[in-house]
Amino acid sequence: MQAWRVHRNGEPGEVMRLEEVDRPVPGDGQVPIEVLAANINFPDALLCRGQYQVRPPLPFTPGVEICGRTADGRRVLATPALPNGGFAEYVVADEAALLPAPEALDDAEAAALHIGYQTGWFGLHRRARLQAGETLLVHAAAGGVGSAAVQLGKAAGATVIGVVGGPDKAKTARELGCDLVIDRRSEDIVAAVKEFTGGRGADVVYDPVGGDAYAKSVKCIAFEGRVVVVGFASGVIPSPALNHALVKNYSILGLHWGLYNTKDPAAVRACHDELTRLATQGAIKPLISERVGMDGAAAAVQRVADGTSTGRIVVLPTGATR
Question: In this model, does residue 321 exceed pLDDT 70?
Fold first, then answer.
């Protein structure tokens, strides 16, 4: 079969190579899956760079989530077992962790529903306890993780402020339903949030960026606000001033969604049921900006790594990119 492989760490566009390899062999409790669509996540770029919290042995195939078909014909969502990730024609995955792909979504959309939306749902609902009528501030609102949080925030009845970088991404954020869009390149985030909220600030901040995004967030957080720390796409890990959290009375909440797979797998399945319900109702739908064939995967992962993409880019091994 064909699979993208990384033999040395570095930038995705330089180190990913398309090769002919043997199909992975299922272990105990695993099943083989034909890949119908593989969604690109920022962690795929970190895997290539050797900067992710999991470092599979070289060589490995990146690709942390897919929509695929099992041998008995089920259409499922899966997180392939590394080092044999999803940018391949076939993967193996744990049978117990498979989730049914929502019928309301096509293969590419379904592939993008899993990690990003689970992260958003757990971040907003389990960690931040977002309530209808509250104001939610989402950084990188036009990206894959941010766009999911925007849709989930709107579905929960929140007023959503989206922060983006550039006019094209601002247009995407408005189309997603953001009530206010702030272009961080040309606008003052803190002043804009305070003006929009009448000085109150944001009740919940969803931050997959870190760095300056976090620093600006805590300057416009509301009384009893909650900052959900999701990731550090900026490459800069903030050092929170806990005295500031104390005097402004806000909470800093960490979210590592992967832990729920081991600590509370029933919650992951319950979340998937809720996401499926929302997708069926049309309240959420992954924003797929590009569908690329197998030969375009490395360049697409590089675009995600560079932060130039919007929404999700999905690899379709069969080449049906329309």
Answer: no
